[in-house]
Amino acid sequence: MHFDLASGVALHVIPTKQFKMTHVLITFTTSQTRDNATARNLLANLLETSTHRYPTQTALARQLAKLYGAYVGMGVGRVGRLHTVRLRASFVNDQIAGTNLFAQVVDLINEILFHPLIDDNEFDGPTFRIQAHNLRQTITALYDDKQFYANRQLMNLYYPDEAVLRVPSFGRVADLANLTAQNLVPVYQDMVDRDRVDIFVLGDVDPAGVRDEISQLPFSSRAVSSLSPYYQQPPHPAVRRKVEHQPVIQAKLNLGYQLPVYYHDQNYYAGLVFNGLFGGTPYSKLFTNVREKASLAYYATSRLLPFTGFLGVQTGIQAVDAQRVTDLIAQQLAELCAGKFSAEQLAEVQDSLINQYRASHDLANNILGRQLLRALLDLPPETAVTDKINAVTADDVSRVAQLVKMQATYLLSGEK
């Protein structure tokens, strides 16, 4: 059920008795730039830890405890080229609580979003410094994970220097030096006043009552231009390659391909099945032939990003086997192009994808994530998904496989 609360501010209510908890997702969406991701992530951290009424994390935690242990937190995410700041809340529904807990949580959300700890046009100094330090540590720790590090290096090879997708949604350590308690205030004001806002409420709720409560959040109308998450780039004239040496025991070989298959376009379901056969499921060729039969990889997986036309392969290997693994991966792709897979393998992958889809309905966050995509893309409700997956033929898989173009290879090796 959809309500327009103001221009550029939409409320989406999903009544269901499936969950004992009520779930709220509020997203602030704008186009990502090379400069705004770090600032918006730091902003999210500040907003979730302090307000004027609750100036410390301890005070905020005590208030949440009073609300029957409700959860309210903030973070960032990305949908293709779009950057989102997301507030999530979950709490027992009013029928179980025996009180109007929904209204109390909305009041706390109001406090977090519209009464941050800002005085004299700057965020509280000690809180800002703590959160900036924490974010620096968090981002640094991510890159200590060599699998994550290798994937980011592959992305840097795949995307051109100027592409915003080179910048992770959580930002960069280098950008923190330019952020202050003063210049983060305009970032906050811009987000609250100008971003597209989508509010989702999932649970055993009355839509009209939800609308009345959420309408008390003082969102103003805003002129929101059309936002598209899709990103496309021309193929590189030659494959970009990089080998890096670090003291690692397990080498990382990551491959990046262009695959022009986009979310819910005519090839979308064929692309899902192709990826499942290539490396996206335990029934895939990479898992079966590279990892299991040849024993050349500790892991070998593929992932399709349907807003950017990117297909990535990640493997953990012995560095000495890098060329053999590269050749064997190429062989698996060639076999998919030629239709060299059995009807049984196709059916196993389709069943696996359908089971994943059905299982995702058991998690509220997955449901809300799909609702967010529907809202951003203005898509009708999903229908007959299992039928569409099952309708993919071997010829469809081969046709999609033939669209794949190698673009980048990255090897992180412990051997010189």
TrEMBL record:
Top-rank taxon: Bacteria
Record Pfam families: Peptidase_M16_C (PF05193)
Ranges of residues in domain Peptidase M16 C-terminal: 178-353
UniProt xrefs under NCBIfam families: YfmF_fam
PANTHER family referenced in this protein's UniProt entry, alphabetically: INACTIVE METALLOPROTEASE YMFF-RELATED, METALLOPROTEASE
Protein's UniProt name: Pitrilysin family protein
